[in-house]
Amino acid sequence: MAQDRRYALPTYTPTARALHWLIAFLVFIQLPLGLYMSYRGNEMITVNEKGETVKGIFDALTGVLYSSHKLIGLTIFLLIVVRLLYRLTQGAPRPDPSVPAALTGVSHLVHWMLYLLLIAVPIAGYLAISYGRYLEVFGIPLPALTEKNMDMSKEIFEWHETGAFLILAFVTLHILAAIYHKFIRKDRVVERMLPNKIV
Ligand code: HEM
Ligand code: HEM
User: Fold this and answer.
1) Nearest CA to 175 among 68, 16, 20, 66?
2) What are the boundaries of each domain within the chain?
3) pLDDT digits over 145-154, tens only?
4) How far apart are CA 131 and CA 145, in angstroms?
């Protein structure tokens, strides 16, 4: 009988699932890390040795947070490129036939928006640090891709921030959809992506 159920429920391959959860894990770290380090580096109010109030603190911890953010961001970029190539060559399991076509269409739109944003946001991050010459990661210099231009750097950081908030919005929608499938619609869509689940 287990055999029949396997045919009734096509799942994502172990490779597709591993990439999905690895990237999801890194994105869950990357978003709050970006927000906190940027707050710490630009906004946090502290008092220095002279008793003056300063905005933004760039100490060793802030440096580690920025380097970690760049490293994790570049890792996400590499993984999403691998995942996208895998997706485009290997495809995905056919949609669950119990789900209305309109809902499947919306879910595909959300998935492709996530792929697009997970490519565009790290590229924007890299261009912004290239224009601003903030190219160091744990003491190791990254190659500059552009000339120095602080106005461009500022502008692209704005895009980077907007893109990051769009990722947050689409991921929230995506997780709400998973909850809807699992607990309200009670279908087996979520099982397709669960780790180590060979149904
Ligand atoms: C999917 C990948 C990424 C996500 C989700 C992400 C997310 C974020 C977020 C939420 C912020 C805070 C925005 C703010 O409040 O101002 C931020 C800032 C920043 N990101 Fe990323 N980021 C990613 C990749 C990268 C990459 C690849 C780099 C560079 C190699 C990078 C460099 C930076 C820098 C330098 C800042 C600080 C900007 C500032 O201090 O004003 N990010 N990122
Ligand atoms: C609790 C968190 C999450 C859950 C429960 C979840 C669940 C799922 C499920 C069940 C699918 C398959 C949908 C289907 O077969 O129609 C899926 C696909 C997908 N998920 Fe997630 N996900 C989560 C987090 C994330 C995050 C953080 C990202 C990216 C930032 C992400 C990106 C994607 C993408 C791009 C697909 C499309 C896969 C394809 O190419 O067909 N997911 N997710």
Assistant:
1) 20
2) 2-192
3) 999 999 999 9
4) 8
Report residue 199's pLDDT band, with 50, 70 and 90 as the boundaries.
very low
Which tens digit of pLDDT belongs to each residue from 23-46?
999 999 999 999 999 999 999 998
- Among protein residues, the one whose CA lies closest to atom 42 of ligand 1: 125
State the pTM of this model.
Answer: 0.93
Q: Is there a contact between 117 and 109 (Cβ–Cβ < 8 Å)?
A: no
Fold (CATH) for 2-192: Fumarate Reductase Cytochrome B subunit (1.20.950)
The pocket around ligand 1, CB under 6 angstroms, is made up of 30-31, 34-35, 38, 41-42, 66, 69-70, 73-74, 76-77, 118, 121-122, 125-126, 129, 134, 157, 160-161, 164, 167
φ/ψ of residue 161, rounded to 5: -65, -45
Residue that the structure tokens 């919306």 belong to? 106
